[in-house]
Amino acid sequence: MEMSRPLRIEYAGALMHVTSRGNERKPIYREDSDFQLFLDTLASVWFNWVVHSFCLMTNHYHLVVETPDANLSAGMRQLNGVYTVRFNRKYGRVGDLFQGR
Hints:
This protein is an alpha+beta fold. It has helices at 32-44, 72-91, and strands at residues 14-21, 50-56, 60-67.
């Protein structure tokens, strides 16, 4: 029997450290402008988050976010999804950019 992953605990006012890694540990930023593309995406994906800090590495990122509306999962799906579309369009690629949670 396959075990399902544990539910993400979400609540209003949570302060969370989240990270997301490139699929197969491959880079999610190929050039300097990709870092800005990600930050622009983060700014445009509005989920009423308060971003306290971030660290963008070549093949993953870290965020410390406060979620006044208990919407971390929805926000992460939107952030990673929109950035993947923009990255794929820029580089003429298809498919997943990020590995699963």
